[in-house]
Structure formats: structure tokens, C-alpha cells
Design goal:
This protein is mainly alpha-helical. The protein contains 7 helices and no strands.
Length: 146
């Protein structure tokens, strides 16, 4: 038994889809709510000029800082979108916001701790270094192009 399309009736397919949606929403909703709350906090309380100084186009350090700020966070793509939207509205450059989002998703500290159970520290360090370099490169590239 399983999800073989030939053996499933239409009601079985609908029920399987609803079960999958409930499972996904159950795993993601907390991150979305946290992301909305953080985004609302940034939007409502962080002065525009402060965000522009820290993450604006004129700040050469904005991309590495965004990557460093993103590493300790733990979220998924759906949860980080409201935060990135608020950063962009407050003056962050596109490449910097993109680097922040990629760092949160690809370099989160909790994920690295989980990886420690299956990978050696040296391999984790190489992974983090290569991914961080790629994220920083993409961030600067987007800042130059857009």
C-alpha cells in the first residue's frame, strides 16, 4: 500500500493531499508567525536611516554583516520572507537582503549542530566556508546589478 497513482481513488488522492498540507502547515506555521512578528518589529520600530546605514548600498560591509546576522537565526523560506520585505522597505539593498535570507536558510547554526551528528567538524567548516563565500558573492553581485 502507498501513494501509487494507479490504485488511488479520487477521494483517496484528496485525502492524501489534505494530510500532506496539514503536515507541512503544522511544521511551518510557527516560523511564519515569528517571521511576521520580526518583520513587523523592524517595520514599526527600526528607523529607516539606521537600516540604510547598516544594510544600504553605500555600506561595503552590508553583505558580510547580513550573513553574520543570518547565521544564528533558525527559519525557513516562508518565515524569512516578511523579515526580508521589511528590510527592503527600510532601505536595505537587494543583494544584502538576499544574502541575509540565504544565510538564514543555508547556514543556520541549529542546522550545523544537527549536521555535527553525521559529519566531521572539518567537513562542516568547509561546507560553511564554501556556502558563505557563495552567498557573499551573490549578495555583492546583486548589489552591483540591481
Amino acid at each position: 500500500e502507498g501513494f501509487e497513482a494507479e490504485h488511488m481513488t479520487w477521494p483517496d488522492r484528496v485525502q492524501g493531499g489534505l494530510t500532506a498540507v496539514r503536515e507541512i502547515v503544522g511544521r511551518v506555521w510557527v516560523y511564519v508567525v515569528i517571521g511576521i512578528a520580526v518583520g513587523a518589529g523592524i517595520h514599526g520600530y527600526v528607523p529607516t536611516n539606521a537600516m540604510a546605514k547598516l544594510m544600504g548600498e553605500s555600506a561595503w560591509w552590508s553583505v558580510p554583516v547580513a550573513v553574520l546576522l543570518g547565521v544564528p537565526m533558525y527559519s525557513n523560506a516562508a518565515g524569512i520572507v516578511p523579515i526580508v520585505q521589511a528590510l527592503l522597505e527600510k532601505g536595505a539593498s537587494l543583494g544584502t537582503a538576499l544574502a541575509f535570507m540565504m544565510a538564514v536558510i543555508g547556514l543556520s547554526l541549529p542546522e550545523s549542530i544537527i549536521l555535527r551528528k553525521v559529519l566531521r567538524p572539518r567537513l562542516i567548516a568547509v561546507f560553511i566556508g564554501v556556502v558563505a563565500a557563495g552567498i557573499i558573492t551573490v549578495g555583492y553581485l546583486f548589489n552591483v546589478l540591481f
